[in-house]
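Apologies for my clumsy wording, but can you show me some protein sequence, whichever is easiest, together with the matching structure tokens, please?
=====
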Amino acid sequence: MVSFVVFSLRRAWQGFWRNALMSLAATATMVLMLLLLAGFWILQTGLQASLDYTESKVEVVADLKDNVKLFEVNPIIADLQSMPEVREVEFVSEEEALELWRQRLAEQGEEGPRRGGRVPRVVVVEVPEHVEAAASRVYDGRASFNAR
């Protein structure tokens, strides 16, 4: 068996040198195809990683209607947190939302309203998957949704 392997390697070496140009062309073609395959594999892996990252950053913002009382907010939050597709729920009161808005305007060099002014109460829901299911489950006229 060892002699067969040695015989085969010797014949391959002889064949390589008998037609060197064709052997180099075949070898170069194989190397090029392997490099191309590796490049596509690296590109696909990078795109998949960026897609996974983007999918993990999906947020649904629920602007609560004015007729929703503050004591009704906790059951909404509890219902959202019980959903398996929801990662995180955050309630932002009107005052907090107004302050966040003013901070964002100040960072941009603009002025917000000095007094008065209303912004809606907000429930921010971080949903990695099934955005429609999370939005439709809590929506019954108490909130309007925007996906970010």
In short: Residues 91 and 123 are 4 Å apart (CA to CA). The beta strands are 59-64, 88-92, 122-126, 143-147. Helices lie at 2-18, 20-56, 73-81, 94-107, 131-138.
